[in-house]
Amino acid sequence: MSAAFAFLHHVAAFVLVAGIVVELVLIRQELNAAAARRLALADMAVGLSAGVLLVVGLLRVFYFEKGAAFYFQNGAFIAKMALFVAVALLSIYPTVKFLSWRKRAPDPGSVPAIRRVLHLELVGVVLILLCAALMARGIGQLG
Predict the structure, then answer these.
(1) Tens digit of each residue's pLDDT, the chain (143 residues)
(2) 143 to each of 13, 37, 77, 78, 87, how far by Cα in Å?
């Protein structure tokens, strides 16, 4: 069961990254109603994968891996969770914009800010991966 949850965790992480990259590609195209729908779909994939990632990750922490005590005494894990929250908060801005574009014409003036946020999200994900690698090797133990 542990391997199945690890697999699901990794698949969700890959879908999350792919979704953000798709958003970056789509936001460079001409903004019209069809592009807005595609952006909203990609953003939904990002949100769903983030939810799966969080739930499965917490299940692994509490039930399938080294135990909560190990993780909550690891600075790399704490940093990983803080980065996850930061990326989630960053993702609110593009999500709100994409949803608003379903009701009215896309706003080309907001594209540069959205692109910056999407790039920051990717940087955050890369840092999360670094923290995961450190954590898996026991680096960052606080106690």
Answers:
(1) 889 999 999 999 999 999 999 999 999 998 888 899 999 999 999 999 999 999 999 999 999 888 888 899 999 999 999 999 999 999 999 999 999 998 888 888 999 999 999 999 999 999 999 999 998 888 888 86
(2) 29, 49, 13, 13, 27
DSSP character at residue 66: S
Q: What is residue 43's three-state secondary structure?
A: helix
Cα atoms in the 13 Å half-sphere on the side-chain side of 66: 12
Please give the model's pTM, rounded to 2 decimal places.
0.91
Q: Which of 29, 23, 39, 85 is nearest to 58 (CA)?
A: 85
> For residues 32 and 47, what is the distance between their CA atoms, to the nearest angstrom?
22
Tokens of 67: 């135990």
Q: How far apart (Å, rounded) are the C-alpha atoms in residues 123 and 103?
A: 30
Distance CA 124, CA 126 (A): 5
Radius of gyration of the chain (CA): 17
Phi/psi at 67 (5° precision): 100, 150
